Please model this.
Amino acid sequence: MINKIWAYMLIIAILFGLVNGKLYAINNSIFTSLENTTEMILSMTSIMCFWCGMIEILKNTKILNIFSKILNPFLKIFFKNTSKKAKDAILINIFSNLLGIGNAATPSGIKAMKEMEEECSNEKMSYEMNLFVLMNTLSIQMFPTTIISIMISSGNMNAGTIILPVILTSFITFFIIMFLGKYILKEDEEKIS
Model:
């Protein structure tokens, strides 16, 4: 469906350019956008490689142990029946999301889901798997590094101004939705069983 929408938009733009005699402008904008997209992909790839590497280094330090002690009460509330391996992957996922590097959080998120899937006895997603998907989607961000780097690469020199609004909105939405989700998902699970 989305492919058809893009095709129609492209055809309409070309026809509009032909009618107005501005086909050269369409041609220029196509090549400019290709160049901008390539530059953004290269800069995002380098940022992602850097942060994925930092997460791998942090796995071998005591920083994650300290972070684990801080987050243990939270993990016990939401992931009571989850194994240590899954909780470790969840911890790295939360840590990556706190730093605002969702791309680096993805591998640990996939690992956590695989671990929880192995522990799951039935075909459906478990209550804790649903909570993890919800948590990963919401993700609290203390430092929205990916967004800031995109803004800076686009020429915005005031990218740091988004930090406080991102922290506030991510905290508020995270806690409201997680606690609502905890009870709604639990209620649904009780109806099924």
Q: What stands out?
A: The two ends are 37 Å apart (CA to CA). Residues 23-59 form the longest helix (37 residues). The chain has a mean pLDDT of 82.
